[in-house]
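Onboarding guide, step 5: your first structure request.
Type a short instruction followed by the sequence, for example:

Predict the 3D structure of this protein.
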Amino acid sequence: MKKNWRLNPKITPDLQNQFPEINPIVLQLLDEMGINTQEKIDEFWNPDYGQDLHNPFLFLDMEKAVKRIFKAIKKEEKILIWGDYDADGVTSSAVLYSTLKKLGAQVEVYLPDRELEGCGLNIEGLKKLKNKKIKLIITVDCGISNAEEAELVKKLGIDLIITDHHSQPLKLPKAYAIINPKLEKEKYPFRELAGVGVAFKLAQALLKESKIDIEKGFEKWLLDLVALGTVADCEPLLGENRTLVKYGLVVLNKTRRLGLQELIKISNLNNLLDSEHISFQLGPRLNAASRMDHANTAFELLTTESEKEAREIAKKLNQINQQRQLMIGKIMQEAKEQIKGEKDKKIIIVESPKKWFWPVGIIGLVAGRLQDELYKPVIVITKIDKKGLQGSSRSVPEFNIVKALQECGRHLLRYGGHPEASGFSLEENKLSEFKEEINKIAERELKNLELFSWLKINAKLDLGDINWDLQEELEKFEPFGESNKKPKFLSVNLQITGLEKLGKNEQHLKLSVIQSSFNSKKFIGFGLGKTIGSKLKIGDMVDIVFELGVNEWNGNKELQMKIIDIDITNIK
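The system replies with structure tokens like these:
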């Protein structure tokens, strides 16, 4: 779907006068994130591990949870960590597992099968614990929507501590303690922690209250996992998350985890690792475990102490990630066939064909790609057994998909997630009723709205504004991520003076352009060689949206303008 451009307004003269020493472009980027006081600017530019992390005991139930865990350690009770299967859940499990082992606990980890069990606590999985003599279950990155399952835990004579970061459901589970920054009653100052962030706060509290000697720096060595899970789960990289990820990237670049060392190697990541490497390389490989195999594979990678095992697991994850990519391509083709005549609908629903069932671990990715292309709420449904169906949805900011699922709750077995991304399960005989109701909800909520996919542009730049001084200022914004996206700039009235197609199949595009009296600049468009490149010629006038970065090769460094979009409407 073609994106519409929206240029953000310039900052007010008053704000510029308040901070005359800051480049107006940089000040505008800060103001767009609500960072417009000296205190906020100082905190953003200079995250401080000692000052900017909140006391974990500000969580209402933290003290209660910590006391119960130390009681379990002292009495040598078996503790079970019940995690989720995505990168956030697996890193959360590894953080708490490493900490409890260090404190001398008898601890096991249970990660549900994405295909067979779904996320969170489940009845069948809990029944398996009956003879294991588990006395305490601690959930990480899940549990807040498991009121029914929490009742069973209680009946089994097991105490339950829930650590989660998902939205509060209509009915809260009854647990010994709940640590979740999104609870309505919670007073914790930062609400946007990832599941791994919440698990880390529990680990922090345990280490703080521990009476045994722990190796110096153990807490900070957990931060590579915190950075991985936070970025992979697309949490906003502001406030406490920014501090955790900034320090976590430092740890990740010298990680002691053998599995991560091997995963970094097999991903061909030779440069200094940043948040983009997590988003596009490491995170997808960790997530591939549960999508195509089992999350245990990723957990074993993060906790193994064997070099041989680390190499084998990293190789396996790389292979199944490649399989995942091929599978997505096949399913996308089938899904697009289904929606050819339904593009006018307010919500798009596609189902796996009867001849084969789409893997549960893939349907969320397919929903995301369709949503990105169509800019509409999308639901993808697949069959998991003779009677059961699993669904995954991706939505737009204008339509809260979790709220819609709540309205349809009587048709569903379970549901949960975020306003723009959620999952659910239901019986096949309820599908028609569910589809009818959610279509009605979408028609009602989106009735008077015309949905557009907007490309938000932060600022307009002349070619003369693009220099190393600006690039160095932009580097202060790293790590980039959710709520702190890499800025996008617009340059207009650019005349093409050079055009070159790069790559084996000429799939990439390199442009040299001039603007008025400014010196020529080079822009690179990855994947644009055959689409846009075929429509351009020397002398054409274009407008370009781009990201500014650095290209390093053979020891050389040069500024690189990466084309995000290009307007060719003025071409004759």
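Each response can be followed by summary notes, for example: The first strand starts at residue 4 and ends at 7.
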